């Protein structure tokens, strides 16, 4: 009788997280795609249970470690440039209560990352009108609602600065009521979104730029 070999779920999760982090940092894959490809790389085509898959927090920590080891000479400057660009657009979109989310906020943004903003206003269509009046050409798509309540319209465009690579900007449009309860810290004290004041504070305090502040103003 052949004894079934023991597989340590924790070790498999670690290996998948490390592989996924490299794909995100180097190739710009999203978390879901990177996790799926990393799982195939580590365990092949075999089906595995959820206990073998890392969560996004574990992958995020591996991204930070990868960037610290392999991209420490370039990633901080890329992150700062993207946060400055995000703040510039948040100030332009001030009437629509913009918030920053994603990798540019949490500090893991790299050269393949985009800026992800969320606007909360009574009439989200006004954001589209503003962009049209500003001669900004945008594409329209949908993004899953952060609370899982269907999808929201999203406007996407490129920022082009002389001598720099273009930066993608995505503005997810929410109603004012969606903001209620949305700006809460998770169990680790981190925020999923932050307003312009918080982003400005991150730029003013680069020593703590890898973590968003725990409180944000209105």
From TrEMBL:
The keyword Ligase applies. Keywords: Ligase. One of its GO terms (molecular function) is ligase activity. This is UDP-N-acetylmuramate--alanine ligase.
């Amino acid at each position: 009788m052949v004894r079934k070999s023991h597989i340590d779920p924790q070790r498999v999760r670690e290996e998948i997280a490390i592989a996924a982090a490299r794909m995100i940092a180097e190739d710009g894959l999203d978390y879901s795609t990177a996790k799926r490809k990393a799982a195939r790389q580590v365990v092949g085509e075999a089906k595995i249970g959820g206990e073998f898959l890392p969560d996004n927090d574990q992958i995020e920590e591996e991204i930070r470690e990868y960037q610290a080891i392999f991209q420490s000479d370039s990633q901080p400057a890329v992150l700062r440039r993207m946060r400055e660009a995000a703040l510039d657009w948040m100030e332009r979109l001030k009437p629509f209560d913009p918030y920053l989310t994603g990798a540019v906020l949490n500090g893991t943004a790299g050269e393949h990352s985009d800026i992800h903003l969320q606007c909360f206003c009574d009439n989200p269509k006004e954001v589209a009108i503003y962009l049209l009046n500003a001669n900004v050409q945008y594409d329209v798509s949908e993004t899953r609602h952060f609370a899982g309540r269907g999808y929201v319209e999203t406007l996407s465009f490129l920022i082009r600065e002389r001598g720099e690579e273009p930066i993608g900007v995505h503005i997810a449009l929410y109603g004012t009521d969606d903001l209620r309860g949305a700006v809460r810290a998770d169990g680790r004290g981190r925020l999923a979104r932050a307003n312009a004041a918080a982003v400005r504070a991150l730029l003013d305090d680069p020593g703590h730029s890898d973590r968003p502040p725990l409180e944000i103003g209105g």
